[in-house]
Amino acid sequence: MTPADPGASAALTASWMALAASGLVLVASWLTLALSGCHDDPPRPLTEAAWDDLEPSDVCGSDADCSNPLAAFAAPGRSTYVVAGADPSASDRNPGTAERPWRTISRAARAGALRPGDAVLIRAGVYRESVRPASGGTGPDARVTFAAYPGDTVVITGADPADGGWERQRDGAWRRPWTGGQMLTYSDDPTFRLEQVVAAGRVLRPVGQRADLAPGRFWREGPDAQPTALVARFRDDQAPGLGGGVEVGMRRVLFSPVGSDPYAECGDPSTPGWFRVVGLTFRYATNRAQEGAVCAGREGGLVEDVRVEWTNGLGIDASGRGHTFRRTRADLNGQMGWGGGCQGCLFEDNAAVGNNWKGHDPYWEAGGGKWVGTTDSVIRRHYAAHNGGPGIWLDGGNHRNTVEGCLVVANEGAGIMLELNTTETLVQHNVAAATRWLRWTGTGILSQAASRNAYVHNTVEANEGSGVWLRLDPDRRAPDGANVVANNWIAGNVIGEHEAREMSIAGTSPAHVRTTRFAGNAYGRRGRDLYQSTFYLAPVPDLEADFRSDDLAMWQRLVGGDRTARLVNPGDRVPAGPIDPVDAGAPGTRVIPSAQVGADLARVRARGDWSGAPAAPWWPR
Prior knowledge:
The strands form 7 sheets. This protein has a 13-stranded parallel sheet with strand order 1-2-4-15-18-22-26-29-32-35-38-41-44, with no helix packed on it. It is mainly β. It is 7% helix and 29% strand. The protein is built from 6 helices and 48 strands. Residues 1-50 have low confidence and may be disordered.
């Protein structure tokens, strides 16, 4: 997991000057964009949200020839099987050859159907099934592969066609008898309901009572244990099927290996491991909040160029050990994009855009991604934008991880958040911008109940709340303090009328505050207003009030360091100083120095160009 080192960029200085000069100018337009939320325009193809993606990889591998896919994915001496659901001759009784393919992916997932090293190539089509592989691989050279045939579009969906059976009601709504099973959840809040209705490619928004029906919404009649019907008003009060077909969600899981216990959670040691999943799109699922529609298995998963979108709850559960996720997107999921706990895993060049359209409480668990119990892992060049909650959130028992090169834009509450006994995390060369205010904060980088973490060479700007806030956890659930904050650009934040600062830190005592080491940061000139200032520090020795000011000399005295820090204006160039050794980060990673304060944009996803990011995607209303 050693970070790539492409060398110094010849354009670094010019890029920094352009970023600094344009950052505050862009604030007004970005606030208009961020505050406008998700609008009621037709949903654009997700490829438009992929403005920053790298070129598609050679999924066949560097030593293979994609011109012969049948030989490219299986291990030497192993077999390749073909699934072609749109082929009239396909049958699950066939041998699964190119000439006589299987009809369903589930045929390949049966116990004993595949051996370690075998591959399944899936031809173009929409597959309405839940894929539960029962046989996995044995190691990195003997994975079981499920891959889209190169050049083909393969969609695995949890929804089935439901054009018929709708009856017009007196109030203009349409009613269809329920044909599925129980829809049990763990909350009476309608946000947690599992049903899903899609019309003309648009997800309808569920409501908790019939009186709340409106165009683009639906209601489920009957109790969770025995639903009786779906009642819907389609867009513009059209009849069902006009402008496109109707689909109803019927499956909770789209891809998840299964062992002897069908109810085992994702990543459980009893489930199979060592799968490779390539080029597939997973769409629509009736999964609960916190339940992933896609899971890579027990260990050793390699997930590349995959999309998981428009599920009811969590898109990807990354729980397990030794997984690698590359160029994979979890977008527009009802609760959250990424989740779970992973040990020794790599998340590289992935994305999470527009998650939590159902409106779960972001401070409970919602947004771009929330990792819990994750250790010795790397999140690199991740793109998180327009999520209804934090963009990247490490919450609960996370240790020795690295978050680097990420672009985190226009999320709610926090861009990057470390919480609840998250320790020894290296957060470096990230851009956290335009975070939206939510109830009590809209902070670029937020820490609470987390300690011994290092924030180095980050660019934090244009957030509605504080730039960086090392918050004293009100509930004291775990220790705070003993962090490193060095060579960061923290300027142009505190947008609007909220109480916030460029840099905030609180502790249990003045000595506790000084356990955090500051060095060489650049702070925006904010003034000495009671509610908005450059600095906030508490408690302060010999003072009744907290320290709220832009007095750099006093800040340096109170924190006992930050001697080379500067107050900056847009366009300033600030050389970086040396950084003392930092004891944080995933194994194989290290602090990467840079000539200038802030993120080295050559290392950041899309070169940190948050000004060019697309508008917020459409959400059901």
